[in-house]
Amino acid sequence: MVTQSSSGGGLAECLRRIRTLAVNSTLDTFMGGLAAIVATGLCACRDIAWPWWGPPVLGMAAIGVAGWPFRVFQQHWRFAGRSDYWRLAGACVLAGMVATGMLGLSGGPRAAAFGAAYAMAAFVIMAGARAGYQCWRSCRDGRDRGDRRVILLGDGEDASRFLSLMPDMGGLVVGMVVEGRQRRPGRRLRGVPVLGQVADLPCILSAFRAEDELLLVVADPRFRGERLSAVLRMAQETGTQVRCMPDLSGIAGGGMAPLHPVRLSDLLNRPAVAPDGQGIAGMLRGRRVLITGAGGSIGSELARQIAGYAPDQLILVDIGEFPLWQVDIDLAEKAPDTTRHLVLADIRDAGRMERVFARFRPELVFHAAALKHVPMVEENPCEGLLTNVTGTRIVADTAARHGVRAMVLISTDKAVNPASVMGVSKRIAEMYCQALDMEARNRDDGHAMQCVTVRFGNVMGSTGSVIPLFRHQLECGGPLTVTDPRMTRYFMTVSEAVGLVLQASARGTGGRADGMAVLLRGGGVFVLDMGTPVRIVDLARQMIVLAGLRPDRDVQIRFTGLRPGEKLTEDLFYKQEILQPTDCPGLRMATPRTVDLAQVANIMDALTLACRDGDGARALDLVRRLVPEFAHNPHGVATPDTAGQIDVERNAS
Q1: pTM here?
Q2: 414, 426, 567, 575: which one is catalytic?
């Protein structure tokens, strides 16, 4: 069935091309004959001894011969651009030379004049036909779309890119708004009139008639973050739709990608960081890589990105059957050549993990398995501690015994100044991996397992995060629930977070001999640059606007109060830490307090026993011995806003 369908589609495409070629060649040769008649009148060549049908036949033959080398008949009139017109000019010049040569035998000295006039007439007629067709299509498309008018946001290069990639919409562009003060209204950039500055956008949009349907196209790919949020708010006041230009990477195949709505990731107040593919490839290519929590948001994205670097094997470990099946289906489509092993296992089961490592002998381990829902872990503290603390220790110890080269721990900003059981459990996991790593690096025998810890904040759209909740509440008509109007969080897209995790892993396991190696030997932790924290209430308002609705009118926002274990703000590092830059723009290093490996192991032994006995009070007492800064907030009591503290810490870095 598939073969027949493919053959049918290929035959239809072949017939379509033949039809286009036949129509174009017929029209162009006809216009070549018309150009010859015009040239005869211009040059007064009526005294040349040829029959009445001689000029049109000569013109048709000349353009028919000259058009093939320049592929004139294969041009798509609808998308004809500058290069097409240059080829058309070359074909007309060659056709004039052919006509001159054919007429030279009987035309005498008038042959050269006829050839020149014929070349010019042919170009004017044929180029005019193409331009007229494009103009007609633009007008027709404008009528089909009603009274829509397009306003571009960008500069001259952005306008040129839009007009070349979106020729169908070129006739709908009425102007553009710019940021540079030197470009005043009334000037034209690439033929598009400048209507004003971005700050004048409300006045510009209001100046159009109420019945005009306006579309504001953000043609500048760098126009993101808070600037884009402000434009959305301005456009919302006049009911103007906002769309973004597709990335050039999406047009690489020669097709034309459509405009897309503003995405929530476009509103992040941080620049995207390009990955260092060479360093990551050197770490992953040909390796056996094990990922715990492979069915989760971070784990599944790790599997997808790692599969792109040609590992020898991917061992995907998760306790959930359905999420593990989902990531396997995804990898089967995107990386079918990667050898995958699906392992259903509980990281808290030491015997099971021992058998997994003995069977697959992984060389790299990415530990993303964890319980992450703060209120749920507050309700079940012993389960959270067993998974996040004991489970991490079991994975790390088993990996070290089986000769794993390096283990990467995925940590969270909730581990800094923790107020929840979930946060403090991740801090203890950090401390244990720090102690293991310090022992391995200071031993300096080249065989001990290295532990790389990477800490970052929220990822957009992850399971259990606020964004899927808001999306669900929007589908139900609202209201959107926010715990506190002062609450802020750091956000990053999951793909960029995982890309930076891989970059940190490559740097942490690269055998460096610089200042970064000194920090790692001292228990250094990689911290992702998350940009500026975002107020959750602002995020809710932005999602309402992106849905084409009005906050507090169409959809209400309701404040519910802090949940158990929550804080108003999260910190990426401790106040006393001095963040050190790395050679990667999106990565920094922090050196939090460390403990002796034997000390932390002894307390973790007692902590595991207390949790298995269900003694939550005893377990929390042991937690406070390891993390004295743990300020437990089990009842969700709002604490003073620490935004000022965050500013001080960011300035210190």
Answers
A1: 0.69
A2: 414
